[in-house]
Amino acid sequence: MAGLAGVAARFRNWVGTLSGGSPIVAAQGFFEALAGEAAHVAQSSTYAYLRARTGFMGPRLFSEKPFLEALEVTRWEAFAAVLADLFVIAEGSLRAHAGSDASSLADRLVGAFGAELGRHPPPAHRETGWDGLAEALAARLAEAQEHPPRTSDDIAATAGAHIFEFLPLHPDMRRPDEDLVVNSVRFRTLSSWQKLARRTDFAAVARDIVGYSDAGGM
């Protein structure tokens, strides 16, 4: 279960080097920051809800193998879902700086999303690996580019709904909490995005993305 913690820790250490306020100007740094924030949101929102919902039974549940195995599924699904939402939000902020290369921007964001997922061995429950997630993001970005950028708040509800379906609790126990879970994930995602956006030079990152070499893994 250390995989996502490692992603988040690597990002926090990396952000520490920017404590002087230096902006994010490179594509790869931006993608790694998105992954770090996604890991943080996935872990914090999942654990916060489960610990609050299970109450005094929590310590026992968190020591049982079946529960921990189900939680591992939740954590990885949460990471992928939040990361996808962040990439959709990012596209809306980068598009204005990509000009006529908006379509190329979307293609390269899909490639970067796949590359960030590919840094991690697919979890055991995904027998075909991360297959399908990049394609799903491509469809979301294609649809998004047909309209003005949506609000971040609207986009960030998608991951919350996905995470809710994977929470390792009986449906009868978690059913009353769907809005709570969705809104918690949305709030944490938006908070992470706003913090990242303040450090990002979107014009520089957009230029770097559309000129990014395929040899770099995208």
Describe the structure.
By secondary structure, the protein is an all-alpha fold. It has one domain (2-16, 23-213). The protein has eleven helices and no strands. The longest helix is centred in the middle third of the chain and has 34 residues, at 65-98. The two termini are 27 Å apart. The relative contact order is 0.18.
Tags for this entry?
11 helices, mainly alpha, 0% strand, single chain
What does the secondary structure layout of this molecule look like, with pairings?
Layout: H1 2-16, H2 27-54, H3 58-61, H4 65-98, H5 102-118, H6 133-144, H7 152-155, H8 157-166, H9 171-174, H10 178-199, H11 202-210
Helix pairs in contact: 1-2, 2-4, 2-10, 4-5, 4-6, 4-8, 4-11, 5-6, 8-10
Number of DSSP E strands:
0
How far is it from the N-terminal to the C-terminal residue, by CA? 27 Å
The largest β sheet comes out as: none
Spell out the helices and strands N to C.
HHHHHHHHHHH
Uncertain runs with pLDDT below 50, 5 residues or more?
A: 13-21, 213-218
Given the structure, what is the number of helices? 11
DSSP strand content: under 5%
Number of domains: 1
Short description:
This protein is mainly alpha-helical.
